[in-house]
Amino acid sequence: MAIDRVQELLSGRQVDRVPLYHFLLGFCARNVGYEVADMYSDPQKSYQAQAWTFEQYGIDGGPDYGYASYGGWEFGGEIKMPEGEWQQAPSHVTFPVTKPEDLDGLTLPDARTAGSLPLAMEFSKLQQQNGVPITVILGGNFSVAGNICPPSTLCRWMLKKPDAAHRLLRIASDHILDVVRLWADTFGAENVIPNLWEPIAANDIISPKQFEQFALPYIKETNEQMLDMGIKHILYHICGEQNANMPLWAQIPMGDPGMVTFGHQVTLTKAIEHFGDSCIILGNVDSSLIQTGTPQQVYEACRDVILEAKDAPRGFMLMSGCELPPMSAPYNVYMMKKAIEDFGQY
Amino acid sequence: MADETKKAEILAGLHDGVVEFDEDRTVEVANEAVAEGVDAYEAIMDGLAKGMETVGGMYARQEYFVPELLLCADALYAALDILKPHLKKENHAEAKKVVLGVVEGDIHDIGKNLVKVMFDAAGWEVIDLGADVKIERFAEEQKKAGAQVVGISALMTTSMLAMPKIIKMVKDGDPNARVLVGGAPINPDIAGSYGADGYAPNAGEAVAAAMAILAQS
Question: Which among B65, B103, B186 is the nearest to A205, CB-wise?
């Protein structure tokens, strides 16, 4: 398992080449002949499938466990594991909150037992046993809130019932801290890298003004408290179209260095401008292109991204702009490594 | 019957109520339109739909985002519920039809719902199949309704792969049907390679894209 480059960058040391970083659970399942659902319901199989695939493709870093709709199950809603030909990850069946009155009965779940967290803890123990970075994947504050209730409800509340929206953000934020505290207590804060994904706060959905009012204060406060716990590095996946939010994101501490990953909608030049001095930059090859493009197109897109960002002050890792699509052509995934070999050497 | 000044005031009230996502106002003005004998079709098309057109422009200019659009839609639908029962028969006969749905395996329906609003506001008859729609249903429902357009949405890179199969089923069932696709992982090149007739990058452009592909037929 080639994890050293990630640790070297986190330690502020020079690496020999751009590391290849990935989040690719469904792809790993297909790669080793497991069901996609196994990646979310069976930590042992999930770890194994990723470890094998990482070795095969020369991926740096270590296996991770998590999914984008995190929050609903943990607060008492129902999710279903991916099934059939077209599903990629667990998805909501019911939401624990659908109307303001539901907030009155909403309590903080026990981080030891709620929803997917026992599976995530089992997975992190495998990370520890195998000497790879210990991560815990959660939604960003706004996305956890938008998974406790339907995102469209959260959107309406921001304008019509802002108190309800803030109550939801408060409990989502408290929950994130509960989980990170449990991981810090179990593994040592300095060994844990919280991974937070924030798709719902993208400008595809909300305005920068709404981000400033409903996302920024909570994310900032939570990150500050995680760092106060002794967490050294926070990885934030700033998902989707977030260009107008970038100056606001830049106000949020991510650790020293932090790790920030971007979708293809944000140029890495802009990412470096805002985060280059404090964070390792990760990204941002268009995920759809990796799935639907030709190997040459993927290779060229990777080349362009590498040349744009490889000299970021705190380092750069090549990654897809969002989860690597499970149905990606294996040769296209290999093209990412090939592009690093050809253009990512230092 | 309302005089022209009163009618203009009502139409402006419906327009502004939608733009300002003031549901109470659109309901009040829609009731006033009925009481004053304003033609329901005019009230919808020259009041509510014009309002949604303005909203579409504000969305394109990033003055409004999804939260505002959702509330504008709520204001629109509240008034439509009042006005639609008063439409004359010939108004129904004129409506173009579109079948909309999010593909199987994908539950993300905010985008599709906003597209539905835009078609509703533009006077189309919308057959909304919802989210996580079995791939066969698009062609079945298109045929059943005789819809001119099928709109397919996907947010996931896995679920988008169902699109070419759905498009083929629709075209096999009715070669005259036109298919419009959209969703975060889709772009014009992918839409073309899947055999779609058109692509809309966002809800605000969906109706224009549908009209454009019909004009090409």
Answer: B65
Sort out which chain A residues have CB atoms less than 8 A from B185's CB and list them.
287-288, 291
Nearest-Cα residue of chain A relative to residue B135:
A86
The domain of B68 spans 4-91
User: Both B121 and B210 in a single domain?
Assistant: yes
B67 lies in the same domain as B100: no
Residues belonging to chain A with any Cβ–Cβ distance to chain B shorter than 8 Å: 26, 82, 84-88, 91-92, 151-152, 155-156, 158-160, 203-207, 210, 240, 244, 287-288, 291-292, 322-323, 325-327
Residue owning tokens 């939260």: B67
Residues of chain B with C-beta less than 8 angstroms from the C-beta of A91: 107
Shortest distance between the Cα of B205 and any Cα of chain A, in A, equals: 14
Chain B residues with CB-CB distance to A244 below 8 A: 62
pTM for this structure?
0.92
Nearest CA in chain B to A83: B105
Q: Do B186 and A84 touch (CB under 8 A)?
A: no
Domain count within chain A: 1
Considering the domain architecture, whether residues B78 and B111 belong to the same structural domain is answered as no
CATH of the domain at B30: 1.10.1240.10
Q: What is the DSSP string of B80-131?
A: HHHHGGG--HHHHHH--EEEEEEBTT----HHHHHHHHHHHHTT-EEEE--S
3-state SS class at A316: strand
Question: Which residue, among A157, A264, A292, would best test binding to B if mutated, counting the most B CBs under 10 Å from its CB?
Answer: A292
Residue range of the domain that includes A82: 23-232+240-254
State the average pLDDT for chain A.
96
**Interface contact A155-B104, CB threshold 8 A:** no
Give CA–CA dist B96/B143, Å, rounded: 14
Q: Domain check: are B100 and B159 in the same one?
A: yes
What confidence score (pLDDT) does residue A2 get?
A: 54
For A229-275, write each residue's pLDDT tens digit: 999 999 999 999 999 999 999 999 999 999 999 999 999 999 999 99
Over range A161-170, report the average pLDDT: 98
Q: Do residues B211 and B111 both lie within one domain?
A: yes
Contacts of B62 (CB under 8 A, 6+ apart): A203, A207, A244
Domain boundary, last residue among B91, B121, B139 = B91
Cα gap A38→A49, rounded to integer Å? 10
Positive or negative torsion for Cα B35, B40, B45, B46: negative
What is the tens place of the pLDDT at every residue in A172-185?
A: 999 999 999 999 99
pLDDT in tens, B122-135: 889 999 999 999 99
Q: B105 and B48 in one domain?
A: no
* CATH classification at residue A196: 3.20.20.210
pLDDT given at position A1:
45
DSSP 8-state code for residue A219: H
Inter-residue contact A223 to A259 (CB < 8 Å): no
What was the pLDDT predicted at B143? Answer: 96
Range name among A42-46, A168-172, B86-90, B155-159 with the lowest pLDDT average: B86-90
- The residue of chain B nearest to residue A265, with distances taken between CA atoms, is B184
Instruction: Please indicate, yes or no, if residue A53 is contained in any of the structural domains.
Output: yes
Q: How many inter-chain contacts (A to B, CB under 8 Å) are there? A: 89
Please tell me which of the candidates A87, A288, A291 has its beta carbon nearest to residue B187.
A288
